[in-house]
């Protein structure tokens, strides 16, 4: 519970203490940005659950242990990331902010 509270409180505190700093500045977010953040968090959580670990765990610890499962996971999420960036930048030019 303390970890989740810190995840929520720390960026908000910095946003209020240093106006104009980062995505959590009071005037920086609108409804669309908030929806995108929530959707991104949901997708990251689903991906972490499906992959049985996070990208850092597979990419740093798993690859260092020469884990074949981590190698496969890293290959899949990196390929997906490249595809999403390509699609947003080249196929959906109006979406990129």
Features:
single chain, mainly alpha, 4 helices, extended, 97 residues
Kindly describe this structure.
This protein has 97 residues and is mostly helical. Helix content is 73%, strand content 0%. The chain has four helices and no strands.
**Count of DSSP helices?**
4
- Tell the overall outline: extended
Span from first to last CA?
A: 33 Å
Topology order in helix (H) and strand (E) letters: HHHH
Strand count, sense and barrel status of the largest sheet are: none
Radius of gyration: 17 Å
* SS content category: mainly alpha
Unreliable parts = none
Helix content: over 70%
Number of strands: 0
* Strand percent estimate: under 5%
Rounded mean pLDDT is: 79
List the SSEs and their pairings.
Blueprint: H1 2-17, H2 31-51, H3 55-64, H4 68-91
Helix pairs in contact: 3-4
Describe the structure concisely.
With 97 residues, the protein is mostly helical. The protein has 4 helices and no strands.
């Amino acid at each position: 519970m303390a970890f989740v509270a810190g995840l929520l409180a720390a960026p908000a505190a910095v946003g209020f203490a240093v106006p104009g700093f980062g995505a959590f500045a009071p005037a920086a977010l609108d409804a669309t940005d908030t929806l995108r953040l929530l959707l991104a968090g949901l997708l990251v959580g689903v991906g972490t659950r499906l992959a049985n670990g996070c990208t850092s765990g597979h990419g740093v610890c798993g690859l260092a242990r020469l884990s074949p499962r981590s190698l496969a996971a890293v290959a899949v999420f990196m390929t997906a990331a490249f595809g999403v960036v390509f699609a947003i930048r080249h196929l959906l030019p109006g979406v990129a902010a």
